[in-house]
Fold this protein.
Amino acid sequence: MITRMPQKEWTNREVSGLLENLAAALQIKDAAKNKFRIIAYENAAAAVEHSTSELKDIWEEGKLDAVPGIGESMTQHLEELFKTGRSKHFEEILSGIPPATFELIKLPGIGPKTAHKLVTNFKISDTHPLEDVKKLAREGKIKDIEGFGEESQKEILETIEAYKADSQRLLYSYALERASEILNWVKQQKEATRVDTLGSLRRGVSTIGDIDLAVATKSPQVVLDHFVNFPKKTKVIEKGSASASIVIPGGIQVDLMVQDPASYGSLLQHFTGSKHHNIALREYALKKGLSLSEYGIRNLAPGGVKKVGTQKMEKFETEAAFYKYLGLEYIPPELREDAGEIEAAKEGKIPNLIEISDVKGDFQIHSDFDIETSHDLGVSSMEEIILKADSLGYEYLAFTEHNPSKGEHNVNQIIDLLKAKREAVDVLNYSFVKTKCKSVKKVFNSLEIDILPNGELPVPEEGLATLDFALVSVHSSFRQSRVEATKRVLSALAYPKVKIFAHPTARKLLNREGIDLEWEKIFAYCVKNKKFLEINGDPARLDLPDFLVKEAQSRGVQFSLGTDSHYVGGLDNMQFGVLVARRGWVTKDKVLCTQSLDAVEKLLEIR
DNA sequence: GCCGTTTTCGGCCCGACTGTTTTCAGTCG
């Protein structure tokens, strides 16, 4: 049977999905025989998923086998795939396994073996496999197959029913709020001596799947009992002697791990991950004859023979001590992605990452000054915002309302509006700032200007002249080709007054992908022409995304931080932008808003 | 199938939890 496959573009996501399916297929066919081949395919899938460049571009440059995890054989097959749209070898591995199997694997709790057993025992359709399995579970037919039972049948039904509603990830800020709520509940139990977040939350990932928490305690059972009694829980998934899982409203899963305070550092390290960081770390340790786990570090017998239980376990109260024992510098959670951090730690070259206390100003704020924009105006007054910035200890800030709408104003009206705003900001600087502020010394008059589809700006030169500097950003025509969009952005950045490219991908997390640009060109242009890329701290944006920040900083790009606040409380979102910068290996000297007022004015060529 | 601070051959991370079992397989993080 030949079915017409949808035309694939072979994005990294699609390629890594294919490689994962190949690993699953090998597992189904003969897990024992293929044991290490499976690992190889899984590693390759992870490498592709985490690659900052598109694999297809890497292939075009002929550097496919330079990607760690992709060797001679896979290079050959991927090449065939990119050239012809298919690979004979891959198809052979997948042959005989109905596509429905790979759909079922996406369900939590269902792996390759279970999925395949279901698909082959019943005639599960490729068109709506989930509905088919749901029906079978409802009719009580699944429990009769060998290896299944009443419990697993019920579990499968519940999983499928919850799947669609819960497949959404959470914004980091939202997950952090929920986590704090639960940690406050856990702390009420006095036996919990220390609590922390774990997993992607602790690493500061922009979107979160589920919430992982840690507790140090001498009485694990007492703490776990208390945890599963969290008032808002909707379900207890499991409860053992070392961990428990509950579900809270919204279908959010919360896992809690407990550990004796003497080994708490090991636990934090283990469950903070990432998985790939841990795998790389354990491989590194093993070469030194050390075996790592959430309990500590075990010295293996000479010769590397593992005799579990016969060797003394070295325990660690702190993560710093754990890494030190391995001969490594401490690695901040934000860097633990197996992206070169272990090598850096070996050489003592972990960067001194930017911290929230380094920030001296916010360079994207929308006040309620009515500039007659077609976008959204802020709701707080300039005075309120300045006082808020002062309470944060900032030295400066910039008002960056959207430009006046072009459709409803003629050129002269736009110039008049901008002159009025210039005047308002000048008055604030001469009086309000001097008399009411402790730390704020200057308010910049700026503007967030739309980049029109053709790369022009909807503000005339005389309007631009009223500004200290301008931000530019994309708010329309998101579907241009990469080449076209790049040209569009570069021509906007060429205006001398334009200093900052704001929320560069224009993505909206969990909602909109954002634009695709030729990033190498953008980065090179910014370095050469002293333009700054914004790291937007709005929790739904977090844009530039962390992986592009890392790429940009490695090429010498400098950054600006802005919260994109539309009300005073929004200024507190700076922490999220800083987290993204940290995940991108950014040090404070690479960030505009950590510099002194003098330095900022020089960098922005204001004086 | 990949890879190199013991190795181009011989290795390849570690443990908890659940359900269906009576010593283990599958899944997860």
In short: The CA atoms of residues 238 and 267 of chain A lie 19 Å apart.
